[in-house]
Amino acid sequence: MRIAPAGVALPAETSPTHLVAMGYDADSAVEAPSPVYVEATSPGTATCRACLFPGGGHFYTGENTRGAALLGVAAGSLIAGALLSSSGGSCEPTAPGDGCEYDPNTHEYRSGSSNRTPLYVGAAVAAGSWIYGILDARNSATRMSTRNGVSLGPVTAHPEPLVGLDREGRTEVGVRLRLAR
């Protein structure tokens, strides 16, 4: 037996054609690159992860840019809405009708005007981003599985019972499973 550089024992009758078939380069007997195995992404798991946080399903399926965009839009809109809204903080009365109102329960002057609209808009945009991520997670899993070549699509199984005799006259029983799209 000959020993290939990768440490694999080869039979003496091994030709360069056999080496290529076994995954070795015929000239240098160097190991060929190993195949890459890709798992299919589950649409159900993608949807569950999308429910946890915005973009979670897209991060699971490998669409990291889209997942980061969804997460960024949700977080950014909440932060911007909180920063742009006003709660009507405390103020010092300087003249009558300047917008300061006296609260007899807390004995404080408060600004009577509050603007929560930016906060509500930011929360609505964040919710929309999150809902879009949940609805698109299933499609994202299908897109990525198809792109990686592991999608079978909808498959139906048709079992067929088999009964017969073998060459020696013994009874054989089995099931054939036919898969069809």
Reading the helices and strands in chain order gives: EEHHHHEEHEE
Report the C-alpha radius of gyration, rounded: 33 Å
Our measurement of the CA-to-CA distance between the termini, rounded to an integer number of angstroms, reads 48 Å
- Residue share in β-strands: 15-25%
How many beta strands in the DSSP annotation? 6
| Main structural class | alpha+beta
- Rounded average pLDDT: 76
Describe the protein's architecture and organization.
This protein has 2 domains: 1-35, no CATH class; 43-147, no CATH class. Helix content is 41%, strand content 18%. The protein is rod-shaped. The protein starts with a strand and ends with a strand. Mean pLDDT is 76; it is low at 1-8 and 14-26. The strands form 3 sheets. It has a two-stranded antiparallel ribbon. The longest helix is centred in the C-terminal third of the chain and has 31 residues, at 117-147. Helix 2 packs antiparallel against helix 5 (117-147) and helix 4 runs antiparallel to helix 5 (117-147). It has helices at residues 16-21, 43-52, 56-61, 64-84, 117-147, and strands at residues 2-3, 9-10, 100-103, 108-111, 156-165, 171-180. The protein contains 5 helices and 6 strands, in the order E-E-H-H-H-H-E-E-H-E-E. The protein is of the alpha+beta class.
